[in-house]
Structures are given as C-alpha cells and as structure tokens.
Amino acid sequence: MFKRMIAVLAIILAGTAPALAKRVALVLGNGAYEHTVQLPNPANDAEQMAAKLKALGFEVVAGQDQTYGEMRRSVMDFAKKAYGADIAILFYAGHGLQVAGQNHLVPIDATIEDETSLDFETITVDFIMRQMSKDVKVQMVFLDACRDNPLARTLARRMGPSRSGSIGAGLAEIKIQETGGEGSVIAFATSPGDVALDGDGANSPFTSALIRHIDTPNASIQTVMTRVTGEVYEETEKKQRPWVNASLIGEVFLNKQAAPAATTTVASLGDTATSAPQQPVVNNAATTSPSQSAIAWEREKLIWETAKSSNTVADYKAYLDAYPSGLFADFARNSIKRLEAGSQVASVNPTVVPGAATAPAASTTGVVATLPDPQKAVPGNEATEASLGWNRTARREVQTRLNLAGQDVGRPDGAFGPKTRAGVSAWQAANGIVATGYFTAAQYALLTAQTATQYSVYQAEVNRKQQAAASASRSATSTRRTNNTTTHRANNNNNNGGNFNPAGAAFIGGVVGGIIGGAIGR
After folding, report:
1. From the CB of residue 163, how many other CB atoms can be counted at a distance below 10 Å?
2. What is the radius of gyration, based on Cα positions, of the chain?
3. Distant-in-sequence, close-in-space partners of 78: CB < 8 Å, separation ≥ 6
4. Are 194 and 169 in contact (CB under 8 A)?
5. From residue 28, how far is each of 61, 73, 140, 144, 210 by CA, in Å?
C-alpha cells in the first residue's frame, strides 16, 4: 500500500513540476513514400507535435520522412535518452500495417515484397515499446498509422490465400504489459482493425485534435484523450472513433499549472472587483474551443501581447474591435478604464502629445480592416517562424506568394536561402514591419490576405496546365494502344491469311533481292 502511495505521488510530482521531471519523446512522421501511396499530412503532424511537446518540457527526438536506417538511428537515440524517464512518448504518423497481430511502422523506402521484408524493412511498435520500458515510469503511445495502406494488400496477394488472413486492416490492438512503472496510455487514431482518415487540411483529424488538447492546462491525459476522441468522432461525422487503452494508477498531467493568485491579476490589471474572478473563465475558454484553429489562436494571443506591452488605449481598443468576445476582452476593458481614469497616457506612449489623447480612439473605427498593424512591432525570428510548422510544400507556397507580392525570390523550391530571406525582409520593409527575414503568424496572415486573389489565379493556371498535361498523356496512351492494336491485327492478317508460308516468303524475297541487286550491278 505504501509503495502504491509513493507511485501516485511520483505521478503527481511529474505533472506539477515538469521542470524537474525527465520527459522524452520520439516523434516520427513519414509521408514521402518511394514505393507506395504518399501521404500529405504526416510530416506536418510530426513537426507540430514535436513543437508542442518541446513547449511542455520534453526532450524530443524528431524525424520526418525517414528511411529504414534513419528510423533505426532515431529509435536508438530515443532509447538512450528515455532510460530512467518519468514520461516517455512515442508519436508516429504515416503508413503502418498489422501482420499476425504485430504492428509494423513503414519507412519511406520500404518495398514490402514478401514476409521477409517485414523483418528487414519495417520497425515494429513492440520493438520501440521495449525501449520505453527501461525504468520508465509512464509510457504513452500515439499512433496515427491506421490509414488505408496498399502495401498490406500487395503483401496479402503475395502471401497467398492460406496465410493472407493474418494481415488485417488498420492496426492491431496493443496489450498493455506491466513493466513496473506507473502505467501506460496507448492511443490509436481509430479503433483496432479500422482505417483512419488522412484529412483534407494540414493535419489528420486525430493529430489535429491531439495538438489542440494535449497542452490544455490542468487537464489529465485521461481527460485530454476523452476530448480528442469526442472531437474526432464528431468532425468525421461519426466515421472515425479513436481508441484509447490506459492503465494508469493515477492522473497524469502534461501541463499542470498552479492557479494564479488574485493579487497578481489585480497588480497587472488594477481592478479587484472584476479582474480576479475572470481568470477561470480564460482557462475555460482556452480548453473548450476545439474548433478554433491554431493560427487564429496564435494571432489573437499576439495582438493581445502587443496591446499589453504598449499599454495604450488605442491598442486595447484595437484588440476589442477584432475580438469583442475574445479570451482577454474583460482584461482589455479593465485596462482601458484604468488608463482613461488616469493621466499617464502621454508618459506610457511618448508619441501621443498633450491635447491629442482622443485622436487614437477616434482612429480605431477601422482597425479590423488593418488588423495586422498592431502586430508590426513584434519582430519575426527563427522561433516565431518555426512555430508555424511549415513543411517543404508550405514553404513553396510562401515563396510563390512572395513572388506574387512583387518580391523576386526565384523558383519556389521550399528552401529558404539568402534570396528568400532577402525577399522576406524587402516585403516586411515595404509593409512597415521590422525587417528580420523571418515570419510571424500575423505577418504570414497579412501576406496571405495581400496575395489571395493572385494566388487563386495562379493555382487555377497550375491546375489547368496539370489537367492539360494529364489529358495529353491520356491521349498519347490511347494513340499508342490504337497503333499497337492495328499493328497486332495486321500481323494476325499476315500470319493467318490463305496458305501463307514464311519460309517461302523468305525464299522469294531472296530471289527478288538478287535480281534487283544484279540489275543495279549491271
């Protein structure tokens, strides 16, 4: 009993003191497959999940579009770091298949020609979980690998009817084994044996929901997964239900936060009567708005931080014009009351001259139309751009938009070299933004809005050319087939007509050739 109490206490400490807990994660996303259907989302899924876990204090071993050798090295690196961890997490997005109850994760260079390929070209989930069982207190596995996989169908055909029955759709249920720790959580994108959706957006439905909820303050992982399951079930119109198997002896929190003291709120906002009770409302809204996209949330936070840092009536009103019912709306109103009641506007914002204090308020009527303006004071850097989670395809789109905005960055290739950085800086300078060569979420939103029409025309032209090329290809294929059919029929007619004798034809041809040759010789 005493040992059980100690174990529960250890889990609580792991949640309340993440800075002291050892947290390690392996995050893999494979989509650029060389020998089977490619998947557009896993690289994005892995990139954003890695960023989330790093923010939660995890040491992350991350890999995108990895070959078999690269995956093995990532697992080895993870295994060394995970030894003795308080929490170890495996997140994988990409192709996977189950054979005889074993779940196999598929590298991008796998061919899967026969059963032997499974041992030498895939990595089993069991193998990775063994690396997570070495003195690890809590294990968590998140598998977004239940997609419709043509590799499994190919393998089933080559194994024959007697053995192909061991190959199932989706992934097989993973039995939780006691390892002496405080428990495990295993989550699939959908129920065992079912096929999950890859999604139409930048992330799959399962990973989108997981990213939104995994860092919810003061929510246990059990609560997080309940919310994820419900959200995916509803967003996929009840076609996909995530599967979770947990054996924890207590609640585990990935983002445990102490409730802020009321005096802290009063000190920053200066309104005892209304500010202190509002803090729980902010947390509630943050945890119950799963439909809000990450980019919209980051944008609102950025506008609020800008207003708070400038501490002017104009910027607080700019926030309220954009988000009248936003998470920080009450705080903004309290700050406006405090500033308007005092006489410190001119000292807080030296650009406001005496006698002109009402000018900013009058000019905020059209703030919504110029929404990015308050964010120009926030310079971009590597961290702000990395938080956007762009993969190579997204970076190509950004380069295309920069070209459309009048900044020549060359042919879009998804690599941000000196020319692209110079183009970003030039675009920032042209828009009154601090020119750093790196984007923020707000700046990307501004670029997207500026080039919306041009990019739509560009995309339409690209689609037109692709359709024309596809049509030409189909036409050429049809022509070749017609010619082959005509040639085949001609050969059949020659071979089967009358009493035609190939040997006789050769003899006659030789005689005729000799006569003609002799005539030419004379």
Report:
1. 14
2. 32
3. 24, 25, 26, 61, 128, 131
4. yes
5. 8, 12, 14, 10, 15
Q: Token digits for 65? A: 């579009």
Angle at 437 (CA atoms; ends 405, 307), nearest 5 degrees: 90
C-alpha to C-alpha distance for 9 and 198, rounded to whole angstroms: 39
Report the distance separating Cα 379 and Cα 117, nearest Å: 50
Q: Which residues pair with 183 in a beta bridge?
A: 138
Distance CA 395, CA 262 (A): 44
Contact between residue 334 and residue 277 where contact means Cβ atoms under 8 Å apart = no
Q: How far, in Å, CA of 182 to CA of 249, rounded? A: 6
Cα–Cα distance for residue pair 394/295, rounded to 1 Å: 14
Q: Which residues sit opposite 60 in a β-bridge? A: 25
3-state SS assignment for residue 301: helix
SS3 364: helix
For the chain, the farthest-separated pair of C-alpha atoms sits apart, in whole angstroms, at 122
Residue 367 · residue 306 · CB < 8 Å: no
The 10s digit of each residue's pLDDT in 444-477 is: 888 988 888 888 788 888 888 878 777 777 776 6
Rounded CA-CA distance 178/353 in Å is: 70
- Phi and psi dihedrals of 253, rounded to 5? -115, 125
> Tens of pLDDT along 116-140?
778 899 999 999 999 888 889 999 9
b (16+ CB within 10 A) / e for 80-99? ebbeebbbbbbbbbbbbbbb
